[in-house]
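Long-time lurker. I teach an intro course on protein structure, and each term I like to show students one example going from raw sequence to a predicted 3D structure in token notation. This year I'd like something fresh instead of my usual example. Would anyone be willing to generate the tokens for the chain below so I can use it in lecture? Attribution to the forum is fine with me.
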Amino acid sequence: MDTTTSVTAIADDYRAIFENAPVHSRDSLEDLLVQHGDWSPEAAKHLMQLAENYGSFMLRNALAISLALEIEDGEFGF
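-- Reply from a regular --
Happy to contribute to a lecture. Here you go:
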């Protein structure tokens, strides 16, 4: 899998979803993830918490580790 391309494509998809958000509050962004990203409300909340709490530097490294160890779904099963 070419992760650079796939991560870039996913980021572009989320940019498109979020760019028309009337308000960039956590609740409105979570709602957009549910409506347009096909996430459950619980998963959308967890995604937003991860992004806000850890940021791209930490999550990029976590992504690299999960790819190296071939961890696809993780313990939470999202």
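Some talking points for your students: Residues 33-78 form one domain. The chain has a mean pLDDT of 89.
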